[in-house]
Amino acid sequence: MTVTSVEASPQTAIGASPPAEGRSPWAEAWTVFRRNLSALFGLVLLFAIVSFVLLGPLIYHVDPFEIVQAPHQPPGSEDVPLGSDYLGRDILAGLIQGGRPTLLVGGLAAAISVLIGVTIGAVSGYFGGRVDAMLGRVVEFFQVLPSLLFTMVIISLFGPSLLVVASAIGVVAWPGMARLTRAEFLRISKLDYVRSSRSAGASHLRLILATILPNALPPIIVSATLAAGSAILFEAGLSFLGLGDRNSVSWGLMIGTSRPYLREAWWTVTLPGTAIFLTVLAISLVGDGLNDAFNPRLRSR
Amino acid sequence: MTDLLAVKDLTVDFDTYDGRVRVLHQLSFSLARGETLCIVGESGSGKSISALAVLGLLPKPTGHIAGGDVLLDGENLVTASDRRMRSVRGDRISMIFQEPMTSLNPVYSVGEQISEVLRQHRDLDRAAAWAAAVEMLRAVRIPDAERRATDFPHQFSGGMRQRVMIAIALACQPEILIADEPTTALDVTVQAQIFDLLSDLKGKNGTATILITHDMGAVGEMADRVLVMYAGRKVEEGSAERVLQHPAHPYTRALLECRPRLELGRLTPRQRLTEIPGIVPAPGNEGAGCPFASRCSSQFDRCLSECPPETIVDHDHSVRCWLAVEAKSEQGALQ
């Protein structure tokens, strides 16, 4: 059965495939996700990266700030499996220790932007009218701010700690999330099951959180994963410019500080760059897989 | 006997791009405990709007109640707070809608959706609410209720979903059930089952029912009283027997004539169904006279210039038509 024929006759699609008993839409999404090779690959890769970052320090005890070798030793040299940087610090130790702030900033920034964006979008889309118009202006205000400049201002005001960097990225990333959530809430709050829930006496809070939000989640989850990916890139960019947290290594910081020596020692920049690339790729593949899994049009395959 | 629900001069306005338009004109009716009132009329006659207005669920911010009262046991719902209305909805008055296919939340199992209403209005823990939900599914005759309670809406057929909707609506044993064309989206055989189920449950719980429909067959089967609406106004009201046997308004007569008839011995092949010519005038465009005048086969001059008053033609039977007014004054003259 092709996708187009399903769309032409939704009746047959419902009648033709009686689903297994008691399966929630979430369980069905997981079934679809499991069959998606690239998404599974992304998930495995992400799992590998996270365990590398979390378990690495337990196995490999080298301080990433300590000078352990002569500068610019190529990978495979004694004591430094992945080479050393311009000060003779261990790149592998940097990759292991630098992963945690990188992932943390990515996850935290995505969480912050989801929290702000979903709250504002939900209130705006649910209540509509004057509330929507007012919040719309707020969203627009943040959307027209040049994001790099704004984060730079925040970081120079509050100092370049991990939390500040994550918050700054989250604060510039939420308008997109708010618009997406608002659109979903506008669409869903007009649907019949919301009306019947309301006629059964549900409160505003209950309608927003328990009735509409679960139905609006799929695109929000997809967009949150992608936001985590771009937050990691953004953090790398800030660190590259020297605006990251100076007290902890991060992949972006490693690239930034080794930048002048790219031609003499390629590994000092390429290895952390690859780490960022693989992480963002893994997150994007997972996000893409989630998108397919939640999209009912692709479900009939 | 005091009425359970009394609607008095309920008037509803809607804001449109062309300004404020009146869609419901001073509707009054009452409902006694355990009684079934059928509201009939074409699409756009204000049936659904009156039901939504009673529950305070007019679409915001376009719809307003411009006047009138809705008294539930003497308490005015028009002026009640939001909080108060929420405790009334689903508990004392519940509603089922036309579209069973889309009226259930796709992300929760049907058992969860029934328990949700119960937990909201009754002080029940999760397990007790679930048990009551399964009991409700059994009451609406869903086979294998225990297992089906864990199923999700997309695993039910249209008729079964409407049963679930009825289970949700009746879970708290409301005093009033408003059913807005509950069978329009269903097959004819399933329609009959749903009506059977409704009248059965009604008999058991003594729930008063407002059935909104344009199926005159269903009216004959279910109704104690009938209210006929046209263009946002009540045009005729009375006991089901009176209205169906002796319709006083030309519109009611026309509606009754539109029914397909199967009378033995008189089956003529290719007999066409009767229709009422023209369409319901758009709100705000009814003109000065009787809103039905332009489509009425027995209209005369007065119909176009003046709106007829409500006239009582018999005990518990009233109508808004100049014919009834004239007949009455002739009667008075003879006496």
Describe what you observe in this structure.
By secondary structure, chain A is an all-alpha fold. Chain A is built from twelve helices and no strands. Chain A has helices spanning 3-8, 10-16, 25-35, 37-59, 91-127, 129-144, 147-158, 162-188, 192-199, 204-240, 251-258, 267-294. In chain A, helix 5 runs parallel beside helix 12 (267-294). Chain A is elongated and about 75 Å long. The model of chain A is unreliable at 1-21 (pLDDT under 50). With 335 residues, chain B is an alpha/beta fold. Chain B is built from twelve helices and twelve strands. In chain B, the strands form two sheets. An eight-stranded mixed sheet of chain B has the order 6-7-8-3-9-10-12-11, sandwiched between helices. Chain B has a four-stranded antiparallel sheet with strand order 2-1-4-5, with helices on one face. In chain B, helix 3 crosses helix 4, helix 3 (110-121) runs parallel beside helix 6 and helix 6 (158-170) packs parallel to helix 7. Chain B is globular, with a radius of gyration of 21 Å. The mean pLDDT of chain B is 86. The interface between A and B is medium-sized, with 28 and 36 residues.
**Form type of chain B:** globular
Helical segment tally of chain B?
12
Q: How many angstroms does the end-to-end distance of chain B come to?
A: 33 Å
What value does the average pLDDT of chain A take? 82
Large-scale geometry of chain A? elongated
Q: Over all CA atoms, what is the radius of gyration of chain A? A: 23 Å
Secondary-structure element sequence of chain B? EEEHEEHEHHHHEHEHEEHHHEEH
What fraction of residues of chain B sit in β-strands?
15-25%
Question: Radius of gyration of chain B over alpha carbons?
Answer: 21 Å
Overall helicity of chain B? 25-40%
The biggest beta sheet of chain B reads: 8 strands, mixed
Quaternary state of this entry equals: heterodimer
Return residue spans of chain B where pLDDT drops below 50 for at least 5 consecutive residues: none
- Please provide the count of β strands of chain A: 0
Main sheet summary of chain A: none
Structural class of chain A: mainly alpha
Number of strands of chain B: 12
List SSEs of chain A in N-to-C order.
Answer: HHHHHHHHHHHH
Q: How large a portion of the residues of chain A is in β-strands, by DSSP E?
A: under 5%
Low-pLDDT stretches of chain A: 1-21
Helix content of chain A: over 70%
